[in-house]
Design brief:
Elements: H1 25-36, E1 40-43, H2 48-60, E2 65-69, H3 76-88, E3 93-97, H4 103-110, H5 114-117, H6 119-135, E4 140-142, E5 159-162, E6 167-170, H7 178-187
Parallel strand pairs: 1-2, 1-4, 2-3, 4-6
Antiparallel strand pairs: 5-6
Helix pairs in contact: 2-7
């Protein structure tokens, strides 16, 4: 089986058709669940890409494991769309993964509003370590990364060696544009985070997320604005 520790020993030619109806997404998902089965986990942030990928996954594996990293700092709209997803896909195993420290406990150990003073440490505590724990028993994980999203993501492949989490990271949506995502969402009447209607193309924790500066051409410009930070640490 293709795992992190066997990556160098195996061929990596994955001929998924990027020109198919779903630009390879359904083909990638079918292969991934056939290959990894219950050892595959989807770490979902429940932005619009998440809504689309959850719907696609439900068509391949209705009882798939979907994990949301519940930092305790998300917008109420994010929690609302998760509840709508649970109603629409009752067979999916949607888990709310919390960090070891509550927000109050983190403040007691590191001071109030750590995200303002040391956002990398805050993300490490509330996102990175929880995902490490989630992936400890998984051979591979799914992500909704798209090449169009940012400069740091433009070389993402369908199947990736993930050195950060010592795992295989599978990204079915790499060839989808933002228009593709919304076209699919509207066509299939998907529940989605209503913050997208208010200028938030990328949605994370409430203290570190602002509407995007559309003039910059960067859909993630509202994340950690002014802090010189572009990723939470999950996608290095």
């Amino acid at each position: 089986m293709l795992k992190y520790n066997t990556w160098e020993e195996q061929e990596h030619d994955f001929p998924f058709p990027s020109d198919s109806e779903t630009k390879g997404a359904m083909e990638v998902l079918q292969w991934a669940y056939d290959y990894y089965g219950n050892e595959l986990v989807y770490a979902c942030s429940f932005g619009i890409e998440g809504s689309v990928l959850v719907d696609l996954i439900s068509r391949v594996k209705p009882d798939a494991r979907v994990v949301f990293l519940d930092t305790g700092l998300h917008f109420k709209e994010t929690y609302e769309v998760i509840e709508k997803a649970k109603e629409k896909y009752p067979a999916l195993n949607i888990e709310m993964k919390k960090p070891a420290l509550s927000v109050a406990e983190q403040a007691g150990e590191h001071g109030d509003e750590l995200w303002k003073r040391n956002p990398n440490l805050c993300c490490q505590i509330r996102k990175v370590i929880p995902l490490e724990e989630t992936l400890s028993g998984a051979s591979a994980w799914l992500s909704g990364l798209r090449r169009e999203q940012s400069e740091s993501r433009k070389n993402t492949q369908y199947i990736n060696k993930d050195n950060r989490f010592k795992s295989i990271k599978i990204c079915p949506l790499i060839h989808w544009t933002y228009k593709d995502i919304w076209r699919y969402a509207h066509k299939n009447s998907l529940p989605y985070n209503t913050l997208h209607d208010q200028g938030y193309p990328s949605i994370g924790c409430q203290p570190c997320t602002l509407p995007a500066d559309w003039a910059s051409g960067d859909a993630r410009s509202g994340r950690w604005s002014g802090q010189g930070k572009t990723e939470c640490g999950l996608h290095l």
